[in-house]
Amino acid sequence: MNKMKKILCVAMALVMLLALAACGSSGGGSQPQPAASKIQTVVDGKLTVATSPDFAPYEFYAVKDGTPELAGFDIALAGYIADHMGMELEIIPMDFDGVLNELAAGGVDLGLAGLSPDPKRMESMDFSDIYYQGGQSFVTVQDKAELFASLEDTNKAEYAIGAQNGSIQMDLANEYSPDADIVPLVKVTDIIAELVGGKLDGAYIETAVAENYAKSYPQLAVVLEVPYDTEGSAVGVAKGNAELLAAVNAAVAAALADGSMDQFIAEANELSTGEIIEGLLEG
Hints:
2 domains, 9 helices, D-Maltodextrin-Binding Protein, domain 2, five-stranded mixed beta sheet, globular
């Protein structure tokens, strides 16, 4: 009987030792850390995003109860990315040139402003995977639509052709309308005002943006599709930050897979037909 008790005691002791060993291994320092802890950002724990809010439905101010709020599917995607990474989000509105310059200088972590990943920009920033397949268009007013049956028709010295400074559209203007008087403007809103006011004969504008403006300004006509090798928008990422780029790509993939991106686009298109402000707010 004493022998049986000794055997039972030994067995119980072994079980306790194994349980303690198991607890020790699970409670040690080998536990996986949150992904955000490995990602270097301008401000620890915060995702700083530059945007240019003159590009509806990508980014703009929606006026709700008299108060302007940043809106657009780029803004919604920025929030999704920050949440996916477990970081606080800070969005900094600025002119489009400023988005490019701040990102190139490392002053912000990301740029979300309908950016296309062309080779020239890749020298100063990295790009995520494409999150939105867009296009490029040539826009004029209804009274001049018949003048532009092809892109060759835009290439005349007597025409004033607008494009946003520093943009892909400016590159397209220089490519397809080199003999025209190309007018660089800071904001897309300026381009629309100059078109409607008769100071421009036409302009190169991203297709979704052009179609959005045409809803609000029936005198506008989106007349030509403009070929462009890299159609689509990507997130601009501070150069050389591989961990941040990987985290952004993971968030973009998730937003596309779970239907969030489609929802963001639908909501932005709906909001952009209401009362909006495009451009930087004064003060």
